[in-house]
Design goal:
280 residues, seven-stranded mixed beta sheet, binds adenosine monophosphate, binds manganese (II) ion, 10 helices
Amino acid sequence: MKVFNADLHCHSTVSDGLLSPTVTVRRAHGNGVDLLALTDHDEIGGLEAAAAMAGELGMRFINGVEISVSWGDDQTVHILGLGFDRQFTPLVQGLANVRGGRDSRARRIAAELDKVSIHGAYEGALKYVSNPALISRSHFARYIVELGHAKDVKGVFDWWLAKGKPGHVQHAWATMEEAVRWIHGAGGIAVVAHPGRYRLARAELARMLAMFKDLGGVGIEVVSGSNNEEHIRDHAHLARHHGFLASRGSDFHGPGESWIDLGRMPQLPDDLTPVWTRLH
Ligand code: AMP
Ligand code: MN
Ligand code: MN
Ligand code: MN
């Protein structure tokens, strides 16, 4: 029997993905995905076209978003919203405000890169941007690869854009409380994306997850595209320990730029309750 293939985390050109929303949906369908959520960063402008294409193909689709949140001492945490009403004004407004900070942040990133002799990075990054409201570090990464300073996008982050590197700047995103409130207000559920990717000590991660749970968050992403078996075991343990539902998502951004293709991740451990049991 074919196992149910849910992919509840991926990106399109509406944020920092390489494929349009409709092409992303077609690719997911071609890869055998049964249930898809498009989760662009701080942006829900691709959902209408994606949902329509999924409808044409007869593939189940739910609304998604990946909200950038500032937590603790200059940490960024990504909160996935799933299965919400995309017209809900506080969500629409809240995301517009989060996006609104991105352009000035991008100019600050470019100013920092200029100091280490990477000139014209703002204009360079913009060449890779499809949605002017959403310039991200991925667009800078593509430009820095173009300049030949790194061989691929992952390498750029390690040397230029990650926390502690020359092109990293502090930024105030949404608060965790806001992100969860917007998602819940819109009738959706909130899930912590890729819990292993944060630079948090074990006790801090536990504190972050406990706070998320207190706010009403219901799930964590147990299987994410960049995970190996050890990560999955670790995340499954966190889900059991904190009493979270489990999500599964590729975090696909585009061919050649992602760890894994749409729907091609390992399955969730059997004993966990999938988040999609709470979505219709
Ligand atoms: P931003 O929201 O502008 O901070 O950009 C965050 C995005 O950068 C993430 O969603 C990833 O797509 C990308 N990113 C962050 N760290 C890495 C990394 N180490 N390797 C590849 N992509 C990364
Ligand atoms: Mn991204
Ligand atoms: Mn993320
Ligand atoms: Mn993502």
